Amino acid sequence: MKEKISLAAARRIALAAQGFTDPRPNGTPDRRHLTRVLARTGLLQIDSVSAVVRAHYMPLYSRLGPYPLALLDNAAVTRKRLVFEYWAHEASFLPVETYPLMRWRMQRAERGEEMYNGLAKWGHERAAYIEEIYREVVGRGPIAASALEGQKGNGGWWGWSDAKHAFEWLFWAGRITTASRRGFERLYDLPERALPPAVLDLPVPSPEDAHRELLRISARAHGIATSGDLRDYFRLSPADMKGRLEELVELGELLPVRVEGWSKPAYLHKDARFPRKIQARALLAPFDPVVFERSRTERLFDFRYRIEIYTPAEKRQYGYYVLPFLLGERIVARVDLKADRPAGVLRVHAAYAEPGAPAETAAALVEELKQMQGWLGLEQIEVTPAGDLGPALADIIAS
């Protein structure tokens, strides 16, 4: 095994680990294809912004091509579900088999140790109120937090804010889970009523064993990564990481390597693939695992990426909701998109090429935009010729 790996090889390894060498389905993607993607990514980060489509739907599209959104929706409901929701990288869909691996985090959260400090403090102060909300879930679940807005209970008037706090505390602690969603609103229920019995019957590992297994999943999903990359995937603490990587190296599951241009040591998963070529063409969500750790994105692709949703419009560099464009093994452009559903239009507000982007970038991006237009059920594409790539896109669309 090589001790030093070129940056180009590291990119190919990382993209292969994320499923970009897997063949796309010939027909309509089904649960088997969803399972395959989840086996690669290990999680799908959930986000509520719907400027184009909510971010958790996009990684499947980027890897499988057009698929029915109901594929993921249906995989997250009923006792035959494939995924459940919990805090992983951030709020995420996770394969149901990983439920026992998150029990340590739930147990710590119940003690106020593994959640936002403000919520932990609130939970300590409002323990009796939380138990009232829990009894409501027991008696009425699946139930949304909004169902208790303004309802009078033993603890006084339940406003949305307090009810939502209580539901979120119980969710962190694993005492309730997401049974389904109504729009984007969670409907909560007890895990024993929402999750497959076979999953609930799985043994709960010790925290140390769970951390080790989560690092295995992270390492497979990365292919090649630094210690910080591996830790960030499931947001493990430095204390939780202590000694775990060394154990996986000793077991031969991780191989220490150096990557060209990286200042920190890296670890190669023992089953990482070394493709000679990546032939990807995909728009990536801001929270796709390929790009959600921004320093890794810069190291791998020399691509500095920040989401500017919360940046005042006049201070934005690239736009409100900007998606990176992956072509081959490189991120070659970025495009500010908006799905204008009432008008039936996919709006390209601006597009920018990366330095050294190949000559075919504009044409390839137009093809990808056409595919996305069809997937989202929009009637046309309209391009504002802004950014250095915008005029070329506008010309191609016009012709």
From TrEMBL:
Any Pfam family: AlkZ-like
InterPro entries (alphabetical): AlkZ-like
Domain of life: Bacteria
This protein's name: Uncharacterized protein YcaQ
Organism: Mesorhizobium robiniae
